[in-house]
Amino acid sequence: MNILSWNCQGLGQALTRRVLKDLIFKHSPYVVFLMETKQPRNYLERLRRQFRFSHSLYVDPQGHSRGLTLWWSEDVNISVFSWDRFFFDGSCSTTDSACSWHFTFVYGEPNTQLRRLMWDRVMDLRRHTSVPWLLMGDLNLVGDSADKWGKRPPAVLDRTILNDLMRVCSLREIGFKGSVFTWTNRRHGEENTRERLDRALMNDS
Q1: What is the mean pLDDT of residues 78-86?
Q2: pTM to 2 decimals?
Q3: Is 26 exposed, middle or buried (0-12, 13-18, 19+ CB in 10 A)?
């Protein structure tokens, strides 16, 4: 099963919509999780119908920022237990399989002063499931020096939270292809910073 998770940083531009269309066409995901959509749900519903997903759930943006979108096809059964401006939490199974798994699609708190509180809430979700768990999205956490390029080292708080998350919830990295870094400040020379913020983590139960 393919799942698309993308911090699109706004779906109002034609180029961004074209990239999304290309990603969906190339990977044929059963589930799409979009962060920072910055668009009202009637606009997102038009896109959903265009991309032929059967179901949807939204967290509306706050002014001109944030916003979460979850689309899924008729080939999967999804039950969403809870959601807020940071995550969708629920269960998923394919229509041709009796196996199910727990998911949390998450957009990590960008405010460092509130970050620990938000991740404590996510870790608490682990207590409510006994099936395999997938945690996926833009975590807004930099794990160690290998996950960052730039003048400043990774924040100790980020590393601590990520280590606690993986230890307490018995999570491991699924792995990835392509560039190590998923975000850049788009500056040049010594001012350039690149970070790996997006991850897919899972456990067995």
Answers
A1: 95
A2: 0.93
A3: exposed
